[in-house]
Amino acid sequence: METLVLVEPFRAVFYAPYYVALERGCFIDQGIQMHLETAGTPDAAAGRLLDGSADLAWSGPMRPMLERSRDASSTLRSFGAAVMRDPFLLLGMGARPGFQMADLAKMRVAIPSEVPTPWWCLMHDLRLAGVDPTTCAGHVRMPMPEGAAALLEGRVDAVMLFEPFAAALEDAGAAVWYAAADRGPTAYSALYAVTPRIAEKHAAFAAVVRGLGAALDWIRGATPAEIATVLAPRFADMPADHLMRGIGRYQGLGLWANTTHLPRAALDGLAAAMVSSGAMSHHPGYDSCIDSSLDLVGPG
Predict the structure, then answer these.
(1) pLDDT tens digits, 264-280
(2) What is the pLDDT of residues 110-124, one digit of tens each?
């Protein structure tokens, strides 16, 4: 049994495959004793890899892409796909049949400030709809709890956030207008590490990927209630109904990957949004950012 330190950026329902792997012993079955630590932010998680205090972490593949676009010598590489669609949801008070992205041009919209990716992707969606996001004066970034409160108080017309905030807002009369997962493949969360540690612990990391794959296989055949029961210890402060509803919504949206292979189309989709929004000047390329040596690696 080998012990590894795994870092999560923060706790979130859409990270379900990792928690299932931990709670159901999928890593232990592969000979890995996993020690999970919470960094608090994606930047802090990346810092733990770079300073050598953690073996691997999970986060958006945006991180290696961003670093590689700035410095071709960056050692961060992603592998082991888990979330290959965007988990963010756009809600407003009451249903809005026939909603179009261009409708947001003249609306007040609260956009999460905790992480940059939903803003990058929304800006790209707006541009594809023929809207220049720099002309949308009513779009403001704020923490998700504040955005939810702003919607309920009528200070904004729409809010973008993830579960369980969406389920809680639905209880107060809000409705989902747009699920960003419907955009199509977007590489949103995978394992990642620095190349020296991948080389040093390649067999162990391959075992981790197999464990994650086992968790994804189980999720595919499980009901939202069964998944919620497994996740409940990690979300003790969350209402059980919100947890189960969020899981059911994400399952229905096809949020969780069917394989640990990270599809090129999913990475390219995210890169297009990052370049469009000005987050990076160019796409460093799939092979530059993804370590495919851990794909489908058997035991031994």
Answers:
(1) 999 999 999 999 999 99
(2) 999 999 999 999 999
Contacts of 239 (CB under 8 A, 6+ apart): 164, 168
pTM exceeds 0.90: yes
Q: Where are the alpha helices (DSSP H) in 158-263?
A: 165-171, 195-200, 202-221, 224-231, 240-252
Pick from 164, 121, 125: which is nearest to 144 by CA? 164
Query: Please, which pLDDT band fits residue 299 given cuts at 50, 70 and 90?
Result: very low
Task: Look at the chain and count its residues.
Answer: 300
pLDDT above 50 (res 254): yes
Output phi, psi for 238, to 5 deg.
-95, 135
pLDDT at 297 (0 to 100): 53
Task: Compute the CA torsion angle 114, 13, 265, 197 (nearest 10 deg).
Answer: 80
**H or E element in which residue 76 lies:** strand 76-83
> Rounded to a whole number, what is the distance in angstroms from the first to the last CA of the chain?
13
CA distance 230 to 105: 41
Of 213, 246, 243, the C-alpha closest to 230 is: 243
Q: What is the mean pLDDT of the chain?
A: 95
The HSE-up count of residue 193 (CA atoms within 13 Å, CB side) is 27
Q: Of 190, 195, 187, nearest to 50 (Cα)?
A: 195
Three-state DSSP state, 93: strand
